[in-house]
Amino acid sequence: MIGRSRSFSRYVFNNLQLLRSHSASIPVRFDEFNPTNRPNPNPNFSARSYCYGKKSQGNNEWTEEIDYLDESGSVIYTGKGIRSVEPRVDDHIMVGGLKQPFSNASAVAKIVEIVKRWKWGPEMETQLDKLQFLPNMIHITQALKVTGDGDASLSLFKWAKRQSWYSPSDECYLALIDRLNHSRDFEGIQSVFDDLVLDSAKMTTVPDFSAFSRVVQYLAKAEKLEVSFCCFKKIQESGCKVDTKTYNSLITLFLDKGLPFKAFEIYENMEGSGSCLDLATYELMIPNLARSGRIDAALKLFQQMKEKNMKPGFMIFASLVDSLGKAGRLDASMKIYMEMQGFGLKPSAAMFVSMIESYVKAGKLDTALRIWDEMKKARLRPNYGLYTMVVEAHAKSGKLETAMSVFSDMEKAGFLPTPSTYSCLLEMHAGSGQVDAAMKLYNSMSNAGVRPGLTTYTALLTLLAKKKLVDIAAKILLEMKAMGYTVDVTASDVLMVFIKDASVDLALRWLRFMGSSGIRTNNFIIRQLFESCMKNGLYDSAKPLLENYVDSAAKVDLILYTSILAHLVRCQEEQNERHLMSILSATKHKAHEFMCGLFTGPEQRKQPVLVFVREFFQNIDYESEEGAARYFVNVLLNYLVLMGQINRARCVWKVSYENKLFPKAIVFDQHIAWSLDVRNLSVGAALIAVVHTLHRFRKRMLYYGVIPRRIKLVTGPTLKIVVAQMLSAVESPFEVSKVVLRAPGDSVSEWFKKPIVQQFLLNEIPSRSDILMHKLNILFPSSAPEIRSLNLPKPLVAGRVM
After folding, report:
1. Which helix (H) or strand (E) holds 674?
2. Where are the PPR repeats (predicted)?
3. Is 438 helix (H, G, I), strand (E, B) or coil?
């Protein structure tokens, strides 16, 4: 090749020498030269008309120096000569007498050489302007593909756009965008996109530029969310088509940025544009639709995918199984799971965990255990959290044997159970009353160095208290205290268990243990224990409790005082009466002062009994103590009747009625009916109310001449016998029905005129027969001191055998 080039160069050189010698001897113009007049060393050489070079003003000599090179670049001749082409106008060079067009490779190489050397700026553009050939878009495109620098490539493109021969080329844009992306010049990509939009706007038809999609893909991959979405919108506005890959890149970007609803909007736009969903789109959309809660849409895509004979991947199956399970659609989840196995895909450990969690949370423990066994058969090891969930779920559902079996496997697998797992098992065993298993778990916790929680201690101590294991409970409580817990509340709860179980001796023993260990309890529990001691007749133990209660600044209310008084009403032994009187005195309640004053004479009281009673009832706060005052009146009237203090009892009833403690007891319905309702009263209160009210009725009928049609005594089924027997002793006209004693007004008026009736109503109850008091004890065996509510039962009664 080099030999042929050198022979051709010698050929050109010889002809040029001939021309030079001829012009020196004969001064003629080159265009007048006729080669036929001179011998031609080469007969194949033909002359042509050349353009002029530079001449001096006085002669016809060529002044431009020309270097002639061979193919290897060596200079073979330098001298005056001519140039046969115009730079940037002609698209060829002259080799001797032949036109030699510029090769694309040479043109691209020259452009790349200039770009690499000058990079950017006016210098580079000046050199490009001096190119000896006319570039075209093919040269620019090829140069952009091999130019390494992004800025230089962009500068070359900007220079080309200003040339007259420039025409928009999708391949050129793609090459430039690829180069800018390789250089991570995203601002340059945005600039190119703007140029691309302008070029497409100038076209009469909608361009099909792939460069549009390429820009969005690169920007989305670079996580330029706002810019990529803006470019996407501009592409749509321009009417250009967006390919599937571009849609996928935008969807991925929005999903990665935590904007699933925006991603779904892009997907809906993709469907509306008629773009074909490929496998990547399905694998992208189905899992994300499922995880975002749009499960039906995910299942619809899943069905479309299968109709197109596309094989779903594992991620699609995993997301559907997980999402359907968490949504509670367990049947659909199991169907997808079985379908996945039909495709030959094996479940992963995460899928097994998800399915077991779903069935456990739904309470379907049998199915969860079946999947658990499948997981083990697949040689997949359950994780720590799964063991914990299965154990606790079975424990809480009462399946303690299964829970303990899985718990044992958990320990063999090398997992240390969490405190919550220990606590759950222990509390469930404690709740089912299994002391041995609960204590075994507690010792296992201690040996493992796991600190039991407060609820665990409480459950265990409650179990020990119910089983009456006081010593073990005391030991556990001290260990709890040593762990740094505050044990006052827990110890009080244990004490309350003993009180509710009526284990008063154990309760007193536990209270002594608390005192010796410096553990305090609250006044409410002290009061409960005091009332339990009173109920069981342990008056010696009750009084110190009451004194402790009073000394701790707790206030003995009227209900508590009345309950003690109720015990005194039913007391039958003199020794116990002394204890109860001392307990009443220890309450330091104002009601006790009233009781003491009530039984003293008028000389010591210095006022009549009715005035004394009225002063006491005036000091009661009826807004907060109305129920308690009603309870006190019932018990007090029982006590006064049994003690034979009828006049004092009538004063108490009169004042309590005046203060509207029993507002609906007496009803005057003009001339039709008068009634007395004693259903809510105790026996003593009912008897006093009947006597006192009949006395009022007698006064109205005999003194004022007002006689109703009938008179009713509403007693209820329990008090009617007591009241009827009392009135039968004085030959009353009242007839006994189911719950009412009734008589005509005229008959009662005649009855009131009898002297025995007058004596009966003015003085005291004439009958205290053993039969009457025996019926009192049978009908009302309890004075109800344990009633804590202010709304007392009906009737609330106390009585004793006299």
Report:
1. strand 673-677
2. 243-277, 278-312, 313-347, 348-382, 383-417, 418-452, 453-487
3. helix
Identify the CA nearest to 617 among candidates 598, 643, 638: 598
Q: Out of 491-495, 652-656, 762-766, pick the least confident.
A: 762-766
The residues with which 383 forms a beta bridge, in sequence order, are none
Do residues 753 and 715 touch, judged by C-beta distance below 8 A?
A: no
Output phi, psi for 55, to 5 deg.
Answer: -120, 155
Q: How far apart are CA 87 and CA 93, in angstroms?
A: 9
pTM for the predicted model, two decimal places? 0.55
Q: With contact defined as beta carbons under 8 Å apart, do 796 and 569 qualify?
A: no
Query: Strand pairing partners for 710?
Result: 673, 744
Using DSSP, how many helices (H) and how many strands (E) does the chain show? 39, 9
Q: Residues 173, 196: contact at Cβ < 8 Å?
A: yes
Decide: helix, strand or coil at residue 62. strand
Distance CA 705, CA 683 (A): 31
User: What's the mean per-residue pLDDT of the chain?
Assistant: 77
Which amino acid appears at position 476 of this protein? I
Task: Give per-residue burial for 20-43: e unless 16+ CB within 10 Å, then b.
Answer: eeebeeeeeebeeeeeeeeeeeee
Please give the single-letter amino acid code of residue 134. Answer: L
Query: What pLDDT digit, counting tens, does each position of 231-264 carry?
Result: 877 877 777 777 788 777 877 777 777 777 777 7
Angle at 593 between CA 590 and CA 595, to 5 degrees: 110
Query: Residue 300: which of 314, 313, 316, 315 has the closest Cα?
Result: 316
How far is the C-alpha of 173 from the C-alpha of 747, rounded, in Å?
A: 124
With both helix axes pointing from N to C terminus, report the angle between 349-361 and 330-342 in degrees, rounded to the nearest 10: 160
Paired tokens of 669: 């319905």
Q: Say how many residues make up the chain.
A: 802
3-state secondary structure 517-535: CCCCCCHHHHHHHHHHHHH
Distances (CA, A) of 561 to 387, 628, 650: 57, 10, 22
Phi, psi of 388 (to 5 degrees): -60, -45
